[in-house]
Specification:
homodimer, Nucleotidyltransferase, domain 5, five-stranded mixed beta sheet, DNA-binding, ATPase_NBD (chains A, B), NBD/HSP70 family sugar kinase (chains A, B), ROK (chains A, B)
Chain lengths: ~400, ~400
Amino acid sequence: MDSAKPSLELVRSVTDEHVLRTLMRHRRLTRAELASEIGISKPTAGESVRRLTERGLLADTGERTPGGRGRGRVGSYYALDPGVGAALAVTIAAEGVVAERLDVYGDTVARAARQIDRPARPDQIAAALLAVATELRDAAGPRDAAGPRDATGPRGATNSRDGGPRDAEPRGDDGQTVRVAVVSAADPVDRASGRLVHLPDSPFLVGDLDPVAVLAPFVDGAVVVDNDVNWAALAERDSVGADGLRDFAYLYLGEGLGCAIVNDGEIRRGRTGLTGEIAHLITIGPGGRATRFIELFGELGLRHAGTTAIDVERLLTTADRAVLGAAVGGVIAALIALADPQEVVIGGSWGPALLDDIRSAATWAPRDVTVRAAGLTETPVLAGVRAAALNSLRRAIVGR
Amino acid sequence: MDSAKPSLELVRSVTDEHVLRTLMRHRRLTRAELASEIGISKPTAGESVRRLTERGLLADTGERTPGGRGRGRVGSYYALDPGVGAALAVTIAAEGVVAERLDVYGDTVARAARQIDRPARPDQIAAALLAVATELRDAAGPRDAAGPRDATGPRGATNSRDGGPRDAEPRGDDGQTVRVAVVSAADPVDRASGRLVHLPDSPFLVGDLDPVAVLAPFVDGAVVVDNDVNWAALAERDSVGADGLRDFAYLYLGEGLGCAIVNDGEIRRGRTGLTGEIAHLITIGPGGRATRFIELFGELGLRHAGTTAIDVERLLTTADRAVLGAAVGGVIAALIALADPQEVVIGGSWGPALLDDIRSAATWAPRDVTVRAAGLTETPVLAGVRAAALNSLRRAIVGR
DNA sequence: CGATTCTAGTCAGGAGCCTTGCCTGGAACG
DNA sequence: CGTTCCAGGCAAGGCTCCTGACTAGAATCG
């Protein structure tokens, strides 16, 4: 498919990638351990380590503990150099902003959060975002007390491959450059720009905000923004295990309405990133009328006065569950018709509570599909963002 | 990502793949031309040709015409050996069955067709499928009059990598083994088995049929079956040009109802392959009632008596176009909500005729999306099947 | 018609990446 | 204190690629 001309170099790059990925899994290994783990010869492993150390990606940890099973000569342990950088995982919702800095191993090395009183204004949220980003930049990571690192190759000098603004140095005190940021926002996200978009009549919780502009000064690399439901769906997929759930829909029913569609194992975002914006989907309204999903909540008086959000408390206490169940059933029918999922997963603050009502209305569905509540309930969005951030960081390191 | 251990062999396979793909584009080249076309050295090109000839994939054409610009020594031209095989492109519809045999360059080397009187019974269609497959197997290809080929290496002896039934020899008289078959059927197709499935109340034109079982004896490789609308959408995508249309929906409105969804440049098939089965989608029915799309046609008396097909002629002459337009508009609203297409392409025997009515009803849509008639009108399904068959054949040849 | 020109293909030499096999150094075991 | 065991380095060899020089043979020129 794509040409790879300088050929022998290709083999070397495969080897180096193998070494890097193996050290991402095992944290620290001797060259002999690397060789047997990867399945290459010791000289090859040694050469690769030498190259990668020279590029500043690997470092001798200084440890000289005996290799593995007690006997034998002590080995030199190598690990990824802290200079490979870190990732930012950020969630933005109306309740507040949470940001974490992750290292290559997926560990959270720093965390910052800001709560915001409801109703939140967009400028408050932007300020909170800026605050957590600044706090994480200034916070020293907990590790890096391992001892002096000798290999101080040309680090950071030749690494500006994204042309971002370099005024504010995008690194914490510990030298952990932030190479990638992955952001969740509780509103629809434009795929190309990363800006939040306000769809007419839809809940708009976070409000007009450009996370890329706010975070770019803190990141020496890409800033990825997507809808919170998409990230939650990714976490749900990963929680099931590899290949377990390649085609499903994640229906989020809370203050906002959202839906993620996973097809062939990947989130499907569509042209503008607005796949799964179900607010305007036509479904079964009161009296069997064809009604837009979002209009139902207006008709039933279930939206917060003055805002676009759904009043979850009132919904759970006073609403006609049969009517709601029928409407959600219509949405599920559309999902089955157009996305053909293996399962429909229901999440959000009120969706799982109405699961029975939804199920009993699913007779509209053209065929039987499992409808179940989300398995991850703790912080599914943050889990998905973390996984994506870690993935992006590792890809950025491995791919040159 | 995926491990590739025996490493230097990887470089060689890249080179060989390059040579094969280049000869698929240029039909015949000397070793020197190959080298400069690919950007490798002459000795490397020569070695690769030697290897591939030994494996029976390449053959000296016997031509000794001077190389290119008149002067100089004459070169030996090499081309893909006819033994690399051919592909079958098959379309199955209620009107009849068409099958073509394609060579590796995408040329149609043989064609067979059977028309069937309406209404067609499944056994008639199965018989027609068997008939065209047999006819194509027995027909000699038009080429292969080029002269004696000397390099008669071990061909076909070590090539049975699919374990298919070898009773009926899956090759025509010219030795062109059929390595892959791509089949279109005018009904929903189960992704895993390739069988046609009957969804309750939906049009079922071809009827219960197992194309894989019928065609397997004729094919020394995979038989791929999919819905005709999906293939038409692929042809539409390719007709626009690379990267032009990565996210769109193809709405087929004819005797049957179908919809293909292309996302990130690929057809999305879903868990069972029933993505886009819009018959049971809830839309706007007469009087604003929430109605399943397919039920509308029953209510309006637009289905053929005794069958499940839609009566297109009556629809075009007598039906209430505003009602139909509104219903289709509701379907488009669902497509926009759940698939976020760049465009919605309308095809089929009656869809384009109602384009204005559909457009004027698209006020239900949450945002403006281009709605247009299909650009390919000739034989879009066959075009898509051909492209897929050619692709599969080439992949089968290159990938070992 | 012979000399010249031009190109396809081959050969020799060398570089890079990998492997196997052997040797050395040094810690732990008994 | 000798034995055992393992990390790491070295040497030799194989495979793939490349460059540059050479050979072979047809078309063109004078």
